[in-house]
Amino acid sequence: MPQRGLTLLELLITLVILSLLLTIGLPGFQRQIEETRTLTMTQTLQDAIQLARQRAVSRNGRVTLRPLGDWEQGWELFDDGNHNGVRDDGEHVVLTHQLPPDLGGVTISGNQPMNRAISYIGTGESRHASGTPLGGFQAGRLTICSPDQSFGYELVLARMGRMRRQTVGPEVCTN
């Protein structure tokens, strides 16, 4: 009966080919992981903002989304009964989303109008939480950048409360 198996030479050639494929493919795989992590973070934050708007409309009252320290640490969504943008005793917390300490290098930053909080009133408009039922209109940008700062996304909040996502390049992420 003939014996079956690999010769030492065939095994070595197979290992060399496998190592070459891994060497070529691993950097591309790492890039894919970074892209997925950045997009997932963007979608998670965008979903929280959309939930804030939906809740404000459904309960016809102010709802605020604010960072836990800064946006990279996470955020909380709450019914803001006194319109001040700060969760006080007795204000219902709808959602708390804490992010892991290591986001893999993904950065999240907001411009001045979006750094402290995003707040919606009952009509679905975004308004600054300034202690009054209406407050001044709120519009701005949150920028989520990849670990290597080569690409990212911006969540752009329009005056009427609508949020859109756009892709940005290194010129935005490195600033």
UniProtKB/TrEMBL annotation:
One of its GO terms (cellular component) is type II protein secretion system complex. The keyword RNA-binding does not apply. Residues 42-161 form the General secretion pathway GspH domain. The chain crosses the membrane at residues 6-29. Pfam families: GspH (PF12019), N_methyl (PF07963). Its main location: membrane. SUPFAM superfamilies: Pili subunits (SSF54523). PROSITE patterns: PROKAR_NTER_METHYL. Belongs to the GSP H family. This is Type II secretion system protein H.
